[in-house]
Amino acid sequence: MTTRPAVLVARGVFPEVLARLAQHFEVESNPDDTVWSAAELSARLQGKAGAFITGSERIDAALLDAHPQLRAVCNMAVGYNNIDLDACTARGVLASNTPDVLTETTADFGFALMMATARRITESEHFLRAGRWTKWSFDMFAGAEVHGATLGVLGMGRIGQAIARRGALGFGMPVLYHNRSRLDAAIEQQLGARWVDKATLLRECDHLVIVVPYSPASHHLIGATELASMKPTATLTNIARGGVVDDAALAAALRAGRIAAAGLDVFEGEPKLHPDLLTVPNVVLTPHIASASVATRRAMADLAADNLIAALGCGPHAGRPPTALNPQVLSAPTP
Ligand code: DGY
User: Fold this and answer.
1) pTM (predicted TM-score)
2) Which of 77, 88, 90, 244 is 20 to 30 Å apart from 236, CA to CA?
3) Contact criterion met (CB below 8 Å) for 40 and 66
4) Are 94 and 221 in a shared domain?
């Protein structure tokens, strides 16, 4: 009898996905959905050929060196700043993420968060729930216009484009964007989006939505100086990663009225938040749920499982994980 590879599923996941993995592997799972420390994660990776991980598990060179038997780390997330991709590639470890399946759902959420922020939805709900609503007033919770206002998109990948499309086609918003590389002219035209430099984007947009991946280059891309250059009536929505925005500077800008409001789904050091964000009223806060529709989370989990199954040479895509980040490791000689 051949022994089946052992894999670790590092966080809670749909039972159907665990069952699929169990058709191919000896699976150690995490039914309590505990967030393991680096040491606990390392202990559980003993003898594992692959790992199904999420953004809360950090895969770095030290961990990989401690587990030379590890051949694949498959992230249930499109963002992969938790994985040292170069370290994986250098050691012949396949890494994967879950692009595409979450694009539209995440864009829906980004747009909803931007609208809730502009129209002060949670701030007014808190007021109402606190029993403070005693009369209608002409200027009560008057917010910013969304339709026809200028949408600014920082980071124009798949999700950025899906947000731009919603703004341009659904809400008649002129769209400005900034990205390292410009889109093809035909796509720009389709989206009604115009590339501008970052300073122009910040100066001219009414609603800024941030969708850039986190990397050392995007750390604190938006800080005090950038916030000061925005319109005082502008809103900022971050669905990218904590760390792209300097949360302390943002809280100070919100308190001082340097911008009107912010919508945040991601935070530096989450699940902890900068304490000042909890005391400024003009911010809508959500716990990193932009991709969290049931169908999309299931699609992400299935895709991460497909990648793991294929990376370890099983299933219909054996040797060809559908969304590998470093597929070259599968054809390279073992380092
Ligand atoms: C992603 O897919 O990157 C989401 O932020 C969930 O981690």
Assistant:
1) 0.96
2) 77
3) no
4) no
